[in-house]
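okkk here we go again. third time trying to get the magnesium ion bound version out, last two times i messed up the smiles copy paste (missing a bracket lol). double checked this time i swear
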Amino acid sequence: MQMNRENAFIKWTLIVGCELFLALFLILPLVFIIQTAFAQGLATYCNSITDQYAVKAAWLTVKATLWAVGVNTLFGLSAAWCITKFAFRGKKIISTFIDLPVTVSPIIAGLIYVLTFGRQSFLFPLLDKYDIEIIFATPGIILATIFVTFPFISRELIPVLTAQGVDEEEAASLMGARTWTIFRKVTLPHIKWALLYGVVLCTARAMGEFGAVSVLSGHLRGKTNTLPLYIELLYQGYDFTGAFAASSILVLLTIIILILRVWLEGRGNKRMELRH
Amino acid sequence: MSGHNNVSEKAYVELRGVNKHFGDFQALKDINISISRGRLIAALGSSGSGKTTILRMIAGLETPDSGEIVIDGKVVNDIPGSDRGVGFVFQSYALFRYMTVYDNIAFGLRVKKWDVATINQRVKELLNLINCEGLEGRYPSQLSGGQRQRVAFARALAPNPQLLLLDEPFAAIDAKVRLELRAWLRKMITQLGITSIFVTHDQDEAIEVADEIIVTNKGRVEQTGTPRELYVNPKTPFVASFIGNAHPVENYDQFQFFDRLGEGTRAIIRPEFVSVFKKGENKQFVKSAEEGVVEDVIFRGSSLELKLRLHGVTIPATRSVNDSIIEIGETVDVFIHRLIVVDGEKIIVQHNKSLKKESVVI
Ligand SMILES: Nc1ncnc2c1ncn2[C@@H]1O[C@H](COP(=O)(O)OP(=O)(O)O)[C@@H](O)[C@H]1O
Ligand SMILES: [Mg+2]
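finally!!
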């Protein structure tokens, strides 16, 4: 009895504590963002988010995100597939390198690309000759975004593929199925939810990326500013309404992704239950 | 043991001097196997002895470091597994978990571009064969262990392979169903007449199901033969102690009418080598029997398993339940017909020396 009462006390303290914490650190700032965004009325808000620079920044963010998701889906699938389905030398090294981007600070990641493709690089004359702009241009931003979101998809896939083993693929190949058929019919149904989940995580991270992109962008308004960079710029210029209005776009996108994520997790779990 | 006794028929599957390493570890050492068409073969050996690797070699899922794999007279080392006419039942069944039973069985046929009507007919036929009509819409997770095993069997059979390979087909199934499935599988395979090799670590399973057994140990083939040959005439110490109910005896020369065959030799004794008589019951071996004491009697349903103490050694024996009752502590007459003597890697079957004299006396 005594024990139970004590447990109940701890339980409720923890619950209230967590809720207060969430309210203080998440809900309150969100409300504040929305409130500030609308502080000078709906019209100003609409003006802010339809500002040509805001639209361009949003568009660039979407573009970089799509690229990052596309490239990393392809890369993540191939890496996860070859790491889990084949035995080869250097497998350990590949799996370690995949995780590198999350352990490296985004600023460093940005600097790496500046050093690789910037004026002081031995590659620069070559790039210059063919008029390829990377640093302070859209390709740089895309590269940086790809880099920081590199492991997100493969890391979701590898455990699922490892757990599955290679038996089903071997069975299919013995029956004469080609690699592509095996992938489509046997492997893909198995990793579908993990893949979508990885895509969602990758999207979220790509949209919010600031550090690496900031180093590579050069902050050219309307050209190389992504949404996060644009928000920072407005904020530094004391345009709080503009900054928070632009933020509200990001928040909206994030909420959509959050909902997708919850839904996907639910679907994924249901499939798991069916299997066991 | 039903026999397709076509000894003259030439080998359908052959492994010639096959070696395989995984890194530094040699999993297969100079494997030579020859299997006639239509036979049901068991590869029997303890876990890690290389059985699965042999099967995977034949299927083309592993490539040998050296040696040849021959199927139907052709060296198939460079032919991909899918073109070897082989059906494979994986130990875990490896059913496609996101496909229905129907799609699982039809998979190989669709890959081979059979037309829809023929596929439909073939799948129906197989579902009927494995007694799984009505389950075609289920997913593997919705089947029992026995049903999964049979679906895996049907899937492997669907494209009409010439050779069926089964890796521990009964390992994942509970004991009662396992016995039924064994009999079922034996019947199926004999009926279809398809050359089959199955892997097992269970000697009862191998003896009961197979026409012929390949005994593997530490990456080598110890002996190949019918269950009876392995039983009566083991060629290596491993086979002698692995097959049957073997008890080691060190000082075997203390038994009457047996001689020590050199230093460092030991003997293996099996229950069926020993006859036990109640006092006065013994008519046949009056002079040559020795006295022993019954240490334990275990009821095995169809027979009694005895433990006897003789010259300070415990030896096994069996007795029919129809024989007169023997109690623990009773003194009995014991006659040992023969022993398997192990001398290094050699095997010598030593018969009781009195046997000739006795037969003369009677
Ligand atoms: N892919 C592999 N990599 C490394 N070692 C392996 C591999 N496959 C099998 N082995 C080793 O080879 C030996 C024989 O394996 P296996 O043929 O599976 O034995 P069994 O089926 O008789 O239990 C085992 O010691 C096992 O660890
Ligand atoms: Mg095995």
